[in-house]
Amino acid sequence: MHSSHLLVMAKAPVPGRSKTRLAPPLTPEEAAEVAEASLADTLEAVAGCGAERLILALDGEPGPWLPEGFEVVAQVGDGFNERLAAAWAHAGGPGVQIGMDTPQVTPELLDACLETVAGGGHDAALGLAEDGGWWAIGMAEPHPEAFTDVPMSHYDTGLQQLKQLHALGMRVADLPVLRDLDDIGDARAIAALAPSTRTAGRVRSLVEPADGPVDVVLPVLNEREAIPWVLERMPDRFRPVVVDNGSEDGSAEVAASLGAEVVAEPRRGFGAACFAGLEAATAPVVAFMDCDASLDPADLPLVCGPVLRGETDLSLGSRRAEAGALPLHSRVANRYLAGRVRRLCGARVTDIGPMRAARREKLLALGIADRRSGWPLEMVLRAGQDGWRIAERPVPYRARVGRSKVTGTVGGTLRAVRDMRGQLSRARRAAQNR
Q1: pLDDT level of residue 334 (50, 70, 90 thresholds)
Q2: In this model, does residue 330 exceed pLDDT 90?
Q3: Which of 23, 226, 285, 434 is deepest in the core (most CB within 10 A)?
Q4: What is the rounded CA–CA span in Å between residue 231 and residue 223?
């Protein structure tokens, strides 16, 4: 009879390979930081449980997050099913295996899970995850076909795994259902559930502002249908300032009825609306975003956080567009403009997107003159030429509600091109004068 074990299947936290569903809204580097914190919390809980052997089946190289007392083996096999089977064949039984996605686990929970298979009452145990997968599996003795043909990372992986164990004649105990850390929603929920963990601390530092409040300028022109969704998703300590730019559909009335401050700006133009909102704002940090439901206000803390923490002067939301959300000509134009910005002022940006944040007084002192479509580009160019620290944070971008006033019409597109050409010419002259 093998001694009891707790087996952890994990991937070394490497940017671009770990927790990739967190990016966006996190960067690959930040997603890897959350993965490392989750792995460290998991291994700490495992180290505190009563299993006689602690085994880490690792894809990658060990790091400083690895506590003492673990037997480390490399994952082997072509697919995850084969890797699971190989790790269990090495570990033997009785034992329980978990991953690195449930940093909320405790030594007491793991001991209770281990008892279901080490105590002689069951052949196996399975802990389902809220997303349809499973977070823990236990076996009194590993079966070579326990994972054969079970689809992994599928909406019904947990159910299929349970069917496989039953098909092998195993008596299966139910373990508690837990939430896996896969996307940013999971990260926030688990941080709230286990606030003292490393994972919670890292998530809070990335998705919550250092302080507040923040005024959010929302230029509006006939956005009645999108306004309720945008305002109801505004995070705490983020105050919406809706600037009505001449709407004829009752947008201002809808926004006011939902508690937003409404500012009227009769002069037509995106820049005019943004500047009116900037003047009306009172918070030290001001954010800007479209109010057409293409951007999620829940991502504002990620964009504003670096400014609030003093890490950067201008934070830009770099759009990661879903299929069909951003027309081809807009994507091409953005790449072109980003390249021109890099050459003219050295700011390494990839998108001239509508979600951004900076300190109010610095923005007012920047002297942005455009009051039409060139406002966003002029802000970045002037900031770069003045030596501002400019950084990007990836944000999801969805199909907007209604038609764009700029790219949705030929006239709007031509005006935007003219405005932005003017800003590039001004920046080129300024660069030559320097």
Answers
A1: confident
A2: no
A3: 285
A4: 12
Query: Dmax of the chain from CA atoms?
Result: 82
Residue 413: its pLDDT value, please?
54
Looking at 107-250, list the stretches that DSSP marks H as alpha helix, in order from N- to C-terminal side.
107-118, 157-167, 184-193, 198-207, 227-232
Kindly give the interhelix angle for 198-207 and 184-193, rounded to the nearest 10 degrees.
130
Q: Which two tokens stand for residue 272?
A: 């005019």
DSSP per-residue string spanning 25-87: TS-HHHHHHHHHHHHHHHHHHHHTS--SEEEEEEES---TTPPTTPEEEE--SSSHHHHHHHH
Q: Using omega within 30 degrees of 0 as the cis cutoff, is the peptide bond preceding 94 cis? A: yes
pLDDT at 210: 64
List beta partners, residue 239.
215
The CATH class that applies to domain 208-433 reads alpha beta
Indicate the CATH number for domain 5-202: 3.90.550.10
CATH 3.90.550.10 domain residues, the chain: 5-202, 208-433
Query: Exposure string (b/e) for 331-348, b if CB count within 10 Å is 16 or more?
Result: eebbeebbebbeebbebe
In 3D, which of 5, 1, 140, 137 has the Cα closest to residue 71?
Answer: 5
Phi and psi torsions of 322, nearest 5°: -75, 165
d(C-alpha 70, C-alpha 234), whole Å: 44
Check residue 239 and give its pLDDT. 96
Residue 280's alpha-carbon distances to 109, 218, 256, 355, in angstroms, are 53, 12, 15, 18
